[in-house]
């Protein structure tokens, strides 16, 4: 799986460099949507937006299965479990120090796709609000 993932990543990079593969959105698009609080945009709703996309229709069946296994592993281990841990840490701090004020800052990756840190906190009953860039807190 590691060799397969490495080969697929290198192929994607070569395609990017050759101009035959285009990323559907730019870093500027991510920043704009993030700053505007538009976390429901199509950019932020891809489950695999934080990990390389190894699944494509041109792969032979056995390689497509390998790609799906890797994608599932990345999504579960690197995204969902990480966001669960971070959400629990925030919740634990809020419960341990109910009379304190907190400011939590996360990278944009924690707001992308499903099962985000915000989703974890909302499931725990917390109300989460976006503060736009430049707005006083």
UniProtKB/TrEMBL annotation:
The alphabetized UniProt keywords are:
Cell membrane, Glycoprotein, Hydrolase, Membrane, Metal-binding, Metalloprotease, Protease, Signal, Transmembrane, Transmembrane helix, Wnt signaling pathway
The similarity comment for this entry is: Belongs to the TIKI family.
Give the cofactor note text.
Divalent metal cations. Mn(2+) or Co(2+).
InterPro entries given in the database record:
TIKI1/2-like, TraB/PrgY/GumN_fam
Domain of life, per lineage: Eukaryota
Q: What is this protein called?
A: Metalloprotease TIKI
Localization, UniProt: Cell membrane; Membrane
Write down any Gene Ontology CC term.
Answer: plasma membrane
Its EC number(s): 3.4.-.-
One Pfam entry name: TraB_PrgY_gumN
Membrane topology (UniProt): Single-pass type I membrane protein
Q: Which residues cross the membrane?
A: none
State its cofactor.
Answer: Co(2+); Mn(2+)
Example GO biological process? negative regulation of Wnt signaling pathway
Gene Ontology molecular function, alphabetical: metal ion binding; metalloendopeptidase activity
Q: What is its main location?
A: membrane
Briefly state the protein's biological role.
Metalloprotease that acts as a negative regulator of the Wnt signaling pathway by mediating the cleavage of the N-terminal residues of a subset of Wnt proteins. Following cleavage, Wnt proteins become oxidized and form large disulfide-bond oligomers, leading to their inactivation.
């Amino acid at each position: 799986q590691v060799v397969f993932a490495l080969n697929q990543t290198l192929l994607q990079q070569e395609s990017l460099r050759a101009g035959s593969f285009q990323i559907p959105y730019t870093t500027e698009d991510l920043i704009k949507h993030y700053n505007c609080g538009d976390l429901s945009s199509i950019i932020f709703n891809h489950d695999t937006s934080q990990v390389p996309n190894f699944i494509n229709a041109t792969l032979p069946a056995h390689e497509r299965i390998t790609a799906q296994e890797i994608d599932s592993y990345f999504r579960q281990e690197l995204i969902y479990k990480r966001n669960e841990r971070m959400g629990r840490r925030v919740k634990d701090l809020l419960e341990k120090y109910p009379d304190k004020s907190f400011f939590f800052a996360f990278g944009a990756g924690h707001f992308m796709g499903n099962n985000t840190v915000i989703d974890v906190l909302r499931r725990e009953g917390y109300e989460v609000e976006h503060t736009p860039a430049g707005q006083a807190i």
